[in-house]
Amino acid sequence: MIIGQDKQRERNEHPRVRGVAIGADHGSYDAKELLKRYLESAGYKMVDVGTDNSTVKVDYPDYAVAVARKVVSGDCERGIMLDAAGIGSSMVCNKVHGIRAALCWSAKTIINSREHNNANILTMGTAQHPMEELCIMAKLWLETKFEGGRHWPRINKMMSIERGGK
After folding, report:
1. Inter-residue contact 60 to 83 (CB < 8 Å)
2. Residue 164 in domain
């Protein structure tokens, strides 16, 4: 199915993201809790998929796939996954059909991931940024709209590859 102007108009009618899945491994638990509270205070409905504590070691793929499944199911419009570097979580999320996860580390990569690539999951490395920066980056990502237009053919190609096309 080719996504075009009708879908773009539909998305523009809902400019505010309503539900955001959030997850983290044990090393990023404290950052997840702080980011969750920050985004809730900004009016976002946060759906926490875990982990639920910082003392028990867990595997980030379990939480990354949980965030991705919340997004593809439609339970949440977007997702945020945190681990030390953000790389592994991005890889895991992108294994789930329908996900376009972006590992971002600056305002420029945040904006590009949304405006050009319509990323539906943000992954970030909590060991790479101070907490205030993670909050600012996540809020910017949630507020940045997909431009559509000339970017649709590229998104369609990207999704075609996922379905086994060229």
Report:
1. yes
2. no
116 annotated active-site:
yes
- Contact of 104 with 141, CB cutoff 8 Å: yes
Secondary structure letter of residue 129 according to DSSP? S
- The mean pLDDT value for 23-43 works out to 97
Q: Is residue 101 part of a domain?
A: yes
* Structural domain range at position 147: 5-10+18-158
The answer to whether the bond into 51 is cis (omega within 30° of 0) is yes
User: Which residues, 6+ apart, have CB-to-CB distance to 108 below 8 Å?
Assistant: none
- Please, is 143 exposed, middle or buried when counting C-beta atoms within 10 Å of its C-beta (0-12, 13-18, 19+)? middle
Residue 66 in domain = yes
Read off the pLDDT of residues 46-66 as tens digits, 9 standing for 90 and up.
999 999 999 999 999 999 999
The closest alpha carbon to 64, from 97, 19, 107, 95, belongs to 95
Q: Which of 26, 116, 129, 151 is catalytic?
A: 116
What predicted TM-score, i.e. pTM, was given to this entire model? 0.89
Q: How far is CA 47 from the centre of its chain?
A: 13
CATH of the domain at 140: 3.40.1400.10
